[in-house]
Amino acid sequence: xxxFFALPVGLVFYHPVVLVxxxxxxxxxxxxxGTWGSLAAVPFAFAIVHFLGATVLAFTALVVxxxxxWASSRYCVAAGTEDASEVVVDEVAAxxxxxxxxxxxxxxxxxxxxxxxxxxxxxxxPIRIVERRFKSGLGVMADDVVAAIYAVITFIFLDxxxxxxx
Length: 166
Prior knowledge:
The protein is mainly alpha-helical. It has one domain (16-165). The protein is built from 7 helices and no strands. The chain has helices spanning 16-21, 33-52, 54-79, 89-101, 106-122, 127-133, 136-165. It is globular and about 55 Å long. The model has no long low-confidence stretch (mean pLDDT 95).
């Protein structure tokens, strides 16, 4: 078994749809392309927050979300599926939303990363409904945003519990 996914017929690695949808190839790595895509989002998020601030990261996440709808839709059509697992731009936009909402520190970002991955994999209500209801690129992108919201809410709840316990 190859360590990498094959690209859909008609797409080459340097095509803008492939670069965006797979986040510069991170989504092509097996196993766990969603985790690889989430990891690939971290250095970009760090640089944006460090140099420009969390507000710019949140705005950039919105831009990536919009561009991701286009790229993931085109990629999935080429792949002949509604949600190709190698499309990870949705994880990038969602991770950036999580990081924009959390204080920048290694422990906070690690917790945010873990919480997002848990909710993205588990897909509790209404994440799975969002995933099924919306089709094409919007469906690919939207469920991860809901998972990001769950991650932030859970982080805040746990942070409050820890503060009360101390």
